[in-house]
Amino acid sequence: CRRCVYPAGGGWARAGGLPRRASGGGARPATPGAPPPPGLAKIDTVTVAMSTPPELRDALRAIYAEVDAAVALAAPRCDASGRCCRFTEYGHTLFLSHFEAEILLAAGLPFAKPVTRDGCPFQVDNLCTARDHRPVGCRIYFCDPAFQDQQQPLTEIALTKMKNLADTFGTGWRYAPLHVFLNEADPPPAAPSSRVPLPLIA
Description:
By secondary structure, the protein is mainly alpha-helical. The protein has helices at residues 48-51, 54-74, 87-90, 98-106, 136-140, 148-169, 178-184, and strands spanning 12-14, 92-97, 123-124, 127-128, 175-177.
């Protein structure tokens, strides 16, 4: 919500604001929305699982698990209002790294293009349909006023670890709003129709 403090180092930022680099970590800071480094020109949901090494995906999911455990320990309140996913309405932007985007897109969740900066296309009836694959920013963001001061330190730690992964695996580092990655991607094919054609009557 508009009263929330959004982590400046990653995950969430106020509309129009730019994330800054987390302290520590050797990865090069990103320019949000900048063109992808070589080899990252486009995310294809068919081949995405092969573009990120399995070891990196496992390490990223380990970071997700650490974040989830830290959040569970803090036990922030969630009112299931859906405000976290309505970006323009509540004045924030979800940033994520290119390999977080790959993990999300590899799940094959449907979405329609073009995706706007206004909200997350994976929110349905105020609930997240991408919960198991959501990026760090989604895992840390809560509107609970009692949790605001803990969001930025958790984000900085996770972002530093992800930048270290980028250095270790030599993937480069790209950091951009959600809609940028989704609009570059090829949406998964629509599910086949279960409708049976009726015979023509002469």
